[in-house]
Amino acid sequence: MEEEGKGGDVVTGVEQYWWWAAASAAQLGWGIFAFRKGHAGDSSLMPFKAFSVASLFVGASACAATASLRASGIHSVGDMKVVGANIRTGLGVRPREGK
Predict the structure, then answer these.
(1) Burial class of residue 42 (count of CB atoms within 10 Å of its CB; 0-12, 13-18, 19+)
(2) pLDDT band for position 18 (50/70/90)?
(3) Is the separation of the CB atoms in 27 and 67 below 8 Å?
(4) Tell me: the pLDDT tens digits for 36-62?
(5) Global confidence as pTM
(6) What Rg do the C-alpha atoms of the chain give, in angstroms?
(7) If you average pLDDT over every residue of the chain, what do you get?
């Protein structure tokens, strides 16, 4: 997979989506920091704080998944179906029947 970037240079998938991985690492680090810090301040804000820490972990995993999918060349649901069919064929499983 190669795409032509601005200026005519060729950019590969891994080089193009490195910032997704960086965002995932930053969110994960921030989530771990907030989790280890624990409760501080008014107890009425505790549900909001717990939700925000959980959101950081979910966001980090979503960024990591997006980075790995895009870097491997999967950009649409059709690409994912092709990969799934190739895995099934490689394992020797019969193809699924269409409706």
Answers:
(1) exposed
(2) confident
(3) no
(4) 877 667 778 788 888 988 999 999 998
(5) 0.62
(6) 20
(7) 79
Contact status, residue 9 vs residue 67, Cβ threshold 8 Å: no
How many angstroms separate the CA atoms of 30 and 75, rounded? 28
Neighbours of 12 (CB within 10 A): 12
Residues for the chain: how many in total? 99
Q: Per residue in 52-77, is it b (16+ CB within 10 Å) or e — as a string?
A: ebeebbebbeebbeebebbbeebeee
Q: Which bin fits 87, alpha (ψ -120 to 50), beta or left (φ > 0)?
A: alpha
Q: How far is Cα 85 from Cα 95, in angstroms, rounded to an integer?
A: 7
Cα 83 to Cα 77: distance, rounded to the nearest angstrom: 10
